[in-house]
Amino acid sequence: MKKKYLVPLLKTEQLAPGAFLQTYDQPEIAASARPGQFVNILPSASTDPLLRRPFSICTTDRDRGHFTVLIKVIGPGTRAIVDTRNGSQVDMLAPLGLSFDWEAGGAVAEPGDKGEREKMILVAGGVGVAPLLMLCEEARAETDEKAKGDPPEIIFCYGARTAEEFVLLNRIEPLVDKLVLTTDDGSRGTKEFCTQAAERHFSPGCRIFTCGPNPMMNDLLTRMRAADLEGQVSLENQMGCGIGACLGCVVTTREGYVRICCDGPVLKTKVLDSIGW
Asked: Which of 98, 135, 166, 254 would you call most buried, defined as having the most Cβ atoms within 10 angstroms of its Cβ?
């Protein structure tokens, strides 16, 4: 159930230039949040900035009642949020939106031999790493708990402009079978787009999940369609309310208009002709 909370901010850590991780204390949000859902934070008690800002929930610690969000500073609203003092009560709506479903499949082609491990390919760009990290944590935790058969093979393809922009690698690496890093300038990993790296790991029946800049995800969608694959994407758009009332985040799909804040942000690629507007 969507609720409005005043949530204590525990700490803000700078992870990279312009990228900050905030830790909050709210057991109800930590217990109910799922990968791909987001919080909508009011930057200030004043009317400047006026609108809330949405951020994907990055990690949860359900035992302690904590959760984190990853924030990239791009304007006065995000700057006001990362400058919030520790201990402050932050006004937010959470958790919002639909989540990734790592058990739902999404491929058009039939899986290969039944003896093969299931494969999950996660493709992240920039702060799009946040919901995919949480997806990794959930997939590992649930397969460990069920202990039925082999866990899925997780290949995490993560792209950034330069090496210094990568964040949370120490949290990702223990959860995945293969971490593939790419940079635009070749300063770490391979010098290519992360979508190119991901394509080399495509196989019939693999499940693909992505979050990042629209051009990146659109390029990935093109490559997926060429391989007869589908998957799930987490979209971004400007939001006014975060609860579906203002219609400020509407996008066009094959099934008509959808509101990213409540009909998304996670959508199946089969409903999209392209990503970006």
From this structure: 135
